[in-house]
Amino acid sequence: MITAYGFGLSNVSIMKRTWSYYIGSLFLTSRFYLGMVGCAIFFIFRFFLPWLGILPYVALLIFICLVVADYLFLFATKDGIRAWRSHAERFSNGDENPVQIRLSSRYGHSVLAQVIDEIPHQFQRRDVLFGSTIPAGGTIVIDYNLRPVKRGVYNFGSIQVYIKGFFRLVSRRYQFRQHADVPVYPSYIQMRKYQLMAISHRLSEIGIKKVRRLGHSMEFEQIRDYVQGDDYRTLNWKATARKGGLMVNNFTDEKSQQLYCIIDKGRVMKMPFEGLSLLDYAINATLVLSNVALLKEDKAGLITFSEKVGAFLPANKKPTQMQLILELLYNQKTRYLESDYEQLYVELRRKVNQRSLVLLFTNFESLNGMRRQLPYLRKIAQHHLLVTVFFENTELKAVLNAPANTVEEVYTKTIAEKFAYEKRLIAKELEQFGITSILTPPAQLTVQALNKYLELKARQSG
Which residue, among 326, 315, 28, 65, has the nearest Cα to 169 in the 3D structure? Predict the structure, then answer.
């Protein structure tokens, strides 16, 4: 009985696989339905025009033969199509990430393929459908890009490939299980771009200003040959006399300064611009800034806070520091409570003893909101060089630039101007208390923060 039952299950399984292979993956095309409608119309005409005779039957027979030929063409070749997807092991948040699909055919004739890629639901896209012709025994490559706007794990599904027969009457579906989990990290693509430009001294190409130093760092590095463009004040006359050629003293920037990026994770950082939240803009800028600081041989650290202090990474310049910063930033999420600046001040006083450059990424929507936190900002500024970075509301610019033709539009424009004016007042009031501020559109945050860091570093080295 057990053997018979097992044999029965085996037969059922084989039947299911056979049905799935020959029937379950068969789909009728629009051309098939048009052909059926054409045959039906032909039979209707014969009812009124008897002289048509057997012509409708002949047309139907030809149509059936074409369908059978199409079917045999598609299903006679086993595993006629192979497909696989390739992409980076992790995606960069806010950037275009390339994805590639390869299709290989074993059919003896070229086939028309429609490809549907089951991309992660976070993208909310329904247009990842590609049509292409695959040559006989050939391979094609489909390239497209995905731009994530949230960090986390994204799940890819299967690749669905629909192959149409020679007469395009039926199609066969191939389903390839290409499930993959891809983590989306802070913008490491942007970080690498700035890193390469910093190494090759091409930061000015993306808006980074060259800062004129008022003096020289007092950290001596070496004596080297004079090259055109060197400052004559650095000439070393003793070495010049000994060698018989111009020699100059080479100085380097003062090293091992501490830079702390502090990220506010409160509800004010939840606001989105171009899909990315303010928190993600701050995270991407922090990643770039920390990397450039380490390239400059400064120490980079990280603090996040909301109603309490979250992550704290002491400033360091060890080789693994950048990876630690990247992993910490990956796990940060916006909280919906108001941020506690008093807790931040206490934590800084307790854990950061050396005077440091502190960049605070936050957002003030009103003057009163800033004034509530001003006492703690002033206390932080007494012990550290504090730079407060907050955001312009770029949506207001569209309102301000649009003409006002009705009373309602005039009212809306007046309110928008009030909010924009308050933002400028916040920046001026912070400056009055000796707190450097950066009011920037979200898209320009990285460039503005990097400019300020290089400017302050040049002042301290001067």
Answer: 28
Residue 40: in which H helix or E strand, if any?
helix 30-48
Identify the band that residue 337 occupies on the pLDDT scale cut at 50, 70 and 90.
confident
Compute how many other C-beta atoms are within 10 angstroms of the C-beta atom of residue 117: 22
**DSSP character at residue 93:** T
d(CA 456, CA 236): 29
Q: What is the pLDDT of residues 176-217, one digit of tens each?
A: 999 999 999 999 888 888 876 665 555 555 555 555 444 444
Per-residue exposure over 298-309, b if at least 16 CB sit within 10 Å of its own CB, e if not: bbbbbbbbbeeb
Residues 247 and 224: their CA atoms lie apart, in Å, by 6
Distance CA 94, CA 444 (A): 14
Tally of helices (H runs) and strands (E runs) in the chain? 12, 21
Rounded Cα–Cα distance for residues 438 and 367 (Å): 15
The span from the CA of 358 to the CA of 381, in Å, is: 9
The angle subtended at Cα 204 by Cα 225 and Cα 362, nearest 5°, is 125
Q: What is the pLDDT of residue 100?
A: 96
Which strands form 357-361's sheet, in the order they lie side by side? 309-316, 299-305, 258-264, 357-361, 385-391, 436-440
Q: 40-64: per-residue pLDDT in tens? A: 998 988 888 888 888 888 999 999 9
- Alpha-carbon distances, residue 298 vs 124, 209, 294, 301 (angstroms): 41, 19, 5, 10
Query: CB-based contacts of 416: which residues, under 8 Å, 6+ apart?
Result: 396, 399, 400
Query: CA torsion sign, 399 to 400 to 406 to 409?
Result: positive
What are φ and ψ of residue 2, in 5° steps? Answer: -65, -40
In angstroms, the CA 106 to CA 322 distance is 47
The token pair at 173 is 């579906």
- Please give the structure tokens belonging to residue 48: 């009124």
In the numeric block, the tokens 């600081």 are attached to 293
Using an 8 Å Cβ cutoff, are 112 and 170 in contact?
no
Structure token digits, residue 187 = 């913008």
Report d(CA 281, CA 271) in Å as an integer. 11
The string of pLDDT tens digits covering residues 396-416 is: 777 878 788 888 888 888 888
pLDDT tens digit sequence for 144-157 = 999 999 999 999 99
Distance from CA of residue 338 to its chain's centroid?
Answer: 27
432 Cβ contact list (under 8 Å, min separation 6): none
